[in-house]
Amino acid sequence: MTTPVESHRYDLELKGITKRFDDFVAVKNLSLSVERGQFVCLLGPSGCGKTTTLRVIAGLEEPEQGEVWIGGVRVDDMPPWERDFAMMFQDFALFPHMTVRKQIGFGLEMMKRPKAEIQRRVDETLATFEISEMGDRKPDTLSGGEKQRVALARALITQPGILLLDEPIGSLDFSLRESVMLELKDVQRRLGITFIWVTHDQNEAFSLGDTVVVMNHAQIEQSGPPETIAERPRTRFVADFIQGNNVFEGTVAAIEGGHARIQTASGIFAVPVDPSQAPAPGAAVTFSIRADILTSQPTDGHVNRLTATCRAVEYLGAIRRYDLVLEDGRSVKLEQFRSTGTRINEGEKVTLGWRVEDGVLHTPPAGAPA
Ligand code: ATP
Is the pLDDT of residue 1 over 50? Predict the structure, then answer.
């Protein structure tokens, strides 16, 4: 077994990982540092390289370039069973003919621990996960949520430094997901184990992650707390991928102090810029404004204005989401709490507004003309 390095700051470090399948690059020069006890969600569309990244950490794929460090130990030359992690899969991969007790003790049996120790630790683990009364049952008699608890108990009994989870609740009924998510988050907090959770579901990632890592085309587009990803999308891809953003394309007409004036097909708008990284006049840029920041009752501070006609209204619990059409035919989304703002009717024409500081200018993709 690996000798853990107690003084390590990061439970996981990926340094410049590249993984190819023949000519296809599945993970490209990816670096990520995860502090101890973090809940990290790898989020992105199908095929962006999330599972491959997980498999590289596990030692199930060998990268062409880069280094993997787990618990302060470089593990590139170690087989999976010597690395300090456990894994949980979407279908839980429970052994159908084994009782719950037997499954949970399986990892310790493989490690050839003494029988008395296995018995004691299985009892403790059953109690921790509140499944003591299910010890003699087999998986086909358990509900989806119970199977998930057994799989988690089996993964964590060996006290791994990291738990890798690949779409772990993807196969659960929608109605069960929320309670299972809360339970998993609670276990993660209580045990202080680092979770690396792969998902393509942004609600999952935003509910659970201390850090959300958004991936696209084999690379990280943005990594940070959920609030930052939601409110300050770094790139156009993130703004498009995360629900609730209105994305505009345009060219820089002028830079004036702390903001750019951007000419778009829908008008000219002021968007904040970092003066040290301001794009040049004439540069093609994109920016976004969140649907819940737009207002249909603009005041003096809302200097950016649009005229739009309401096309449809959706009711989402406490929120009304409006689909509006601009004069140039493009659509914009507006979200308002039902308790605030006045209701807009289909066919009604409104003026929308937002403050300069609410707009987010995106970093252009690497290689794009400045
Ligand atoms: P999903 O959410 O659909 O699981 P993902 O983001 O996890 O997607 P990966 O499974 O990491 O994506 O796959 C990334 C890309 O690498 C995909 O285009 C996939 O087809 C390809 N790929 C993965 N494994 C192999 C393999 N063994 N051989 C060839 N190509 C592969």
Answer: no
End-to-end Cα, the chain, rounded Å: 51
Answer yes or no: is pLDDT of 262 > 90: yes
Q: For residue 41, what are the β-bridge partners?
A: 197, 212
Ligand 1 pocket list (CB less than 6 A): 21, 24, 26, 44, 46-52, 200
Q: How far is the CA of 26 from the centre of ligand 1 (A)?
A: 7
Question: For residues 360 and 276, what is the distance between their CA atoms, to the nearest angstrom?
Answer: 16
Alpha-carbon Rg for the chain in angstroms: 25
Q: What are phi and psi of 193, to 5 degrees?
A: -90, 140
pLDDT at 127: 87
In the chain, the domains with their CATH numbers are 10-231 (3.40.50.300), 236-361 (2.40.50.100)
Tell me what the mean pLDDT of segment 191-201 comes to.
Answer: 93
- Pocket mutation for ligand 1, best pick of 20, 48, 55 (most atoms within 8 Å of C-beta): 48
Ligand 1: which residue has its CA nearest to atom 9?
Answer: 49
Give 145's Cβ-side CA count (13 Å radius). Answer: 15
Pocket test for ligand 1, best of 23, 51, 213, 220 (most atoms within 8 A of CB): 51
pTM assigned to the model: 0.89
The protein residue with its alpha carbon nearest to ligand 1, atom 18, reads 47
Q: Are 261 and 254 in contact (CB under 8 A)?
A: yes
Closest C-alpha among 14, 79, 21 to residue 53? 14
Q: What is the pLDDT of residue 93?
A: 79
Mean per-residue pLDDT over the chain, rounded: 90
CA of 291 to the centre of ligand 1 (A): 33
Ligand 1 atom nearest to 21, measured from its CA? 29
Give residue 167's pLDDT: 87
